[in-house]
Amino acid sequence: MPASTTTSLQAWLTLSMLDGVGPLTLTRLLQHFPDPARALDADLLTLQSLGLRPAALDIIQRHQQGDAALGAGLEAVNFWLQQPDCQVLCLNSADYPAQLRRIADPPPLLYLQGNAQLLHEPQLAMVGSRHPGPHGAATARQFARSFAESGLVVTSGMALGIDGACHQGALDAGGETIAVWGTGLNNCYPKRHGALARAIVDQGGLLVSEQPPDAAAHAGQFPRRNRIISGLSLGTLVVEASLNSGSLITARLALEQNREVFAMPGSIHSAQARGCHQLLREGAHLVETVRDVLEVLRLPLLAAIEAQPEPGDIAGQSAPASPLWPLIDHNPVSVDWLGEQSRLPVERVMQELMELELDGRIQHTPHGYSRLS
Fold it and tell me: What is the topology classification, in CATH, of domain 116-307?
């Protein structure tokens, strides 16, 4: 019989559906009762001895007295479990990811859609601002692509900005990515990432949540989701973040979980770089290339380093032959400055810039021309 239909799992699902029985209570019960069905039938004194709150004691007793309305959500979960590639893992399951089990507060239940085997593959968490600067998203996408090509699973939180770019970069490479949601897997948040979520599953990736499938978005769920992102991964790379970014929560959780923390430097004039600079001052590994991460993680993936493009190359393409390319970096420069440095006439400079822009190598900003990657 599939794990999703076992009596044991049904008992845990029932408990998780009871208002007042949160993750901490569920974990406490899980640690005490080898057979979770016994938790539903336990007497009041036994439950009190476990230190359960009065609200949890009351709700379990009401369930024992036959209050059928308490289990209304169970039917919806069981319907969801009949959908393709959907399953639930309990903390005491042999298939529960070992990396996540070792954190201080692992989620008692994991709702999964997609390729669950990815939970046991080496992962790198990539996170960052929901409102990245002009280069942040492009950089995140490029690095995620390279990590995926190296064999790492890219894990992120499905948010707008850097998170979405990381998932997309892994997909660009035909690689594997895990999206950890703060909502139930029937409620994509943000909604504009619905197509991205479908692509992740269709291309062999995985969606993960500790919330029941129909759970809506609540602010408090997203910081708790971050411990799963970092807990599944060998390390966390912050691509771009302000000082009040939720990405710093993920980085600090990674430190508490004894995982590696990486950060990319940025412009001293950019508020979106200050969070990364703070992490670097606190001892995070500075990242300028894919090699910087792979060498710290010391995995067999190091064999793939030589296949990585040089910084500034796009997805393995060679550097453009344009004489202006060496003069353009991520800090915008003007046409006049490029003319002075290259000693080319303005007409030639404009022609070279147009070709580089058409090739997707540079962009024109209000402050001048700069690289896209």
Answer: Rossmann fold (3.40.50)
